[in-house]
């Protein structure tokens, strides 16, 4: 948002209260008052189709979550030092979404994806006795001191520390046709570079859809070789499922499953409680046993009974309403329609993604090779004028990122497509 723009009283109030940490969308931020399904309503009564928010996966203000949370908070909510069966019911339901062969038998619930990645990284360090991490160039994994070090996109004027190496995400534009092999070679080079610095690799930490890097979901199956390389060097593979998890990619419940790989540790968050703050680490018990024998782990709020109630409601809703299939069908439809638009618009160079996680590359009209971040911002603003909320990703912010609710309807998808064509002048 733009501090030079004249601001409403409510924006000025927020800035007075939160100062430089205020993270607000749009030059002229929106004051929201309510939301339902895929729509949000602002203070002027304007309704916006939410194509950005990867939190209310089953729909804003969902009645099932409202009922589950209110019932539990009116019955019992406490720190996590007591046995409350709904917590174990949730842990078992969540565990059942992971293939048994992975042997990910323990789950630690936390309150944010950052906390989850922080713990996952500490488990990896303990198990491997290494301290090195390999991530992708524009990755974001969270906000703790430890996790910020592996989040290149969050480090504005700070260099990556010596124990972190960032490599390009596995995409054709960086590696050519042999993406999987090229990516594995980069991982190997990163391990060698760490070794030269006297650092052993602890883990390869990857967002399974490379969302901050610009959304690279396909081709499926391109991570195997890189993971083999990291395993050979004694490191672990941590799958960060904060963005793709909970059925969003349509073809799988977890993003890593699309690549047919076996993570050693998985981290979750964002849509997990449909807005109720909750996240988690899914791990092999041996890692947790060794870690807890040493420093232990306690989280006052992580996995409290109300969080468990919210989480259960989300899992049930995804299953009962077959939202994974909805994500697949509507995602394919959106992609197909957007690709047709890309063929006739000189401003769109590529459309890619899986299910309801789609990236659209915006380019200068003179060349598909010239990313256009300025025009991307214009499109975001113009889409707002068409009552659609959307955001951007990628190293230079020139990839539009689509993540609508999983309960999206065909009519809502069409509403988006029409507005998208309109802002491109089609
Ligand atoms: N991992 C990824 C891939 C994320 O996108 C985010 C948040 N954008 C996080 C971790 C951190 O999650 P949180 O904001 O809940 O701490």
Task: Note down, in words, how this protein is organized.
- This is Aminotransferase class III-fold pyridoxal phosphate-dependent enzyme.
- InterPro entries: Aminotrans_3, Aminotrans_3_PPA_site, PyrdxlP-dep_Trfase, PyrdxlP-dep_Trfase_major, PyrdxlP-dep_Trfase_small.
- Its cofactor is pyridoxal 5'-phosphate.
- Keywords: Aminotransferase, Pyridoxal phosphate, Transferase.
- It holds the Pfam family Aminotran_3.
- The protein is an alpha/beta fold.
- It has 2 domains: 130 residues, Aspartate Aminotransferase, domain 1 (Alpha-Beta Complex); 258 residues, Aspartate Aminotransferase, domain 2.
- 38% of the residues lie in helices and 18% in strands.
- It contains 14 helices and 16 strands.
- The strands form 3 sheets. Strands 4-10-9-8-7-5-6 form a 7-stranded mixed β-sheet, with helices on both faces. Strands 11, 12, 13, 15 and 16 form a 5-stranded antiparallel β-sheet that branches. The chain has a 4-stranded mixed β-sheet with strand order 1-2-3-14.
- Strand 2 and strand 3 form a beta hairpin.
- The longest helix has 22 residues.
- The mean pLDDT is 96.
- 4'-deoxy-4'-aminopyridoxal-5'-phosphate binds next to helix 4.
